[in-house]
Design a protein that fits this description.
Elements (H helix, E strand, L loop, with lengths): L1 E2 L9 H9 L19 H18 L5 E7 L1 H13 L5 E6 L2 H10 L4 E7 L23 E3 L2 E2 L4 E2 L11 E4 L16 E5 L9 E7 L16 H6 L9 H17 L1 H23 L2 E2 L11 E6 L5 H10 L2 E2 L10 E4 L6 H18 L1
Parallel strand pairs: 1-13, 3-4, 3-5, 5-8, 8-9
Antiparallel strand pairs: 2-10, 6-7, 9-10, 11-12, 12-14
Helix pairs in contact: 2-6, 3-4, 6-7, 7-9
The structure holds pyridoxal-5'-phosphate.
Subunit structure: Homodimer.
Pfam families: Aminotran_5 (PF00266)
Main location: cytoplasm
């Protein structure tokens, strides 16, 4: 079966097999990693290796701290302003879809949010040109969502934020292609697409931005506390952290982020090319900003949606239903989706047109 779910998403099959094989006895310890003390030598090594591999994959220098936190990406919607506002009250956000809007709504609880640009009036089908952004030179940070998971909209550039720290919610496209981390003040990503199990959230923060948390910041949300305690102030999500480490190892074996870029480009191009040529399926996003990770599409006749999904399910093409807020279909094709999965989907789509088109 191929799982096209937007998240939690498919994990690489070799990772799941390894997890199964060692579930009762990890390397002769007679225990699962899940049962191991987070203070044990074994787990500390697992944790450190995962961080080292992530640093290598993403090109993260020593100027940045890497934190393995909890509460998902949504927790970061509050954690970011609480930690980065400092004495400031003003923050800039770009609104390109449902996840941007959620981040904005949460930030408004703590800060004066300036929506520097929005494509809402264009149905979130494009990214506003940066020359039109109304950013503030004195903002505490500029936040954007490089890949809108629900709309299927992805930036093809890193915004220029001048001296203002750039903050990105990379939940649904981290490690899918190379990114210059040095351009960012902070990157966060919920793990459940390209990293591992849900609940875990990876935070990459430039070290000079640590130590600015508002006094009322909950201890568990304080980046400085997390950094000082190697993300083990409390009991971390040990097993999720372990699986994330296995995914990083798998990524390195595949050839790293450069290899993922080539694969993800090929997979998404194939699918969009087929959609555009079909005359039956459609995707509304301006081609330049079509997501490589999440491909929403509609059928020429909505009343066929049920039949499409049923037939897909029968062929092991799972979870293709679009988000409840937009309808239609959505194929999420993260790093772990093999090219054969996209080929099988296109095959099925073409057969469906023959039968119903
Ligand atoms: N941001 C983006 C871009 C997402 O795709 C998601 C979830 O799918 C989230 C934030 C929320 O993540 P979580 O469910 O981990 O809070």
């Amino acid at each position: 079966a191929y799982n096209f779910c937007a998240g939690p998403a498919a994990l690489p099959e070799p990772v799941l097999r390894q997890a199964r094989d060692e579930m009762l006895d990890w390397r002769g310890t007679g225990m699962s990693v899940m049962e191991m003390s987070h203070r044990s030598d074994e787990f500390v090594e697992i944790a450190e290796t995962a961080e080292k591999d992530l640093r290598e994959l993403a090109g993260i220098s020593d100027d940045y701290a890497v934190l393995f936190m909890q509460g998902g990406a949504s927790g970061q919607f509050a954690t970011v302003p609480l930690n980065l506002l400092g004495e400031n009250t003003r923050v800039d956000y770009v609104n390109t879809g449902i996840w941007s809007k959620k981040a904005i709504a949460e930030a408004k609880r703590y800060a004066t949010v300036n929506v520097a640009a929005s494509s809402e009036d264009r149905g979130f089908t494009t990214v506003p040109d940066q020359s039109e952004w109304n950013t503030s030179a004195d903002a505490a940070y500029l936040h954007y969502t490089p890949n809108e998971t629900i709309g299927g909209l992805e930036y093809d550039f890193v915004p220029d934020s001048g001296r203002v720290p750039l903050v990105a919610d990379m939940s649904s496209n981290i490690l899918s292609r190379p990114v210059d981390v040095n351009r960012f003040g902070l990157i966060y990503a919920g793990a459940q697409k390209n990293i591992g199990p849900s609940g875990l959230v990876v935070v990459i923060i430039r070290k000079d931005l640590l130590g600015r948390a508002r006094p009322e910041t909950p201890t568990m949300m304080n980046y400085q506390v997390m950094a000082d305690n190697a993300s083990m102030y409390n009991t971390p999500a040990t097993y999720s952290w372990y699986l994330a480490g296995l995914v990083f190892k798998w990524l390195k074996e595949q050839g790293g982020v450069d290899a993922m870029e080539a694969l993800n480009y090929r997979k998404s191009k194939k699918l969009y090319d087929y959609i555009d040529a079909s005359g039956f399926y459609a995707n509304p996003i301006e081609p330049r900003f079509r997501s490589w990770m999440n491909v929403p599409f509609t059928l020429a006749d909505d009343s066929l949606n049920g039949a499409f999904l049923k037939g897909a399910d029968e062929r092991g093409l799972l979870n293709l239903e679009g988000h409840r807020s937009v309808g239609g279909m959505r194929a999420s094709i993260y790093n772990a989706m093999p090219e054969a999965g996209v080929d099988a989907l296109i095959d099925y789509m073409a057969g469906f047109v023959k039968e119903h088109g």
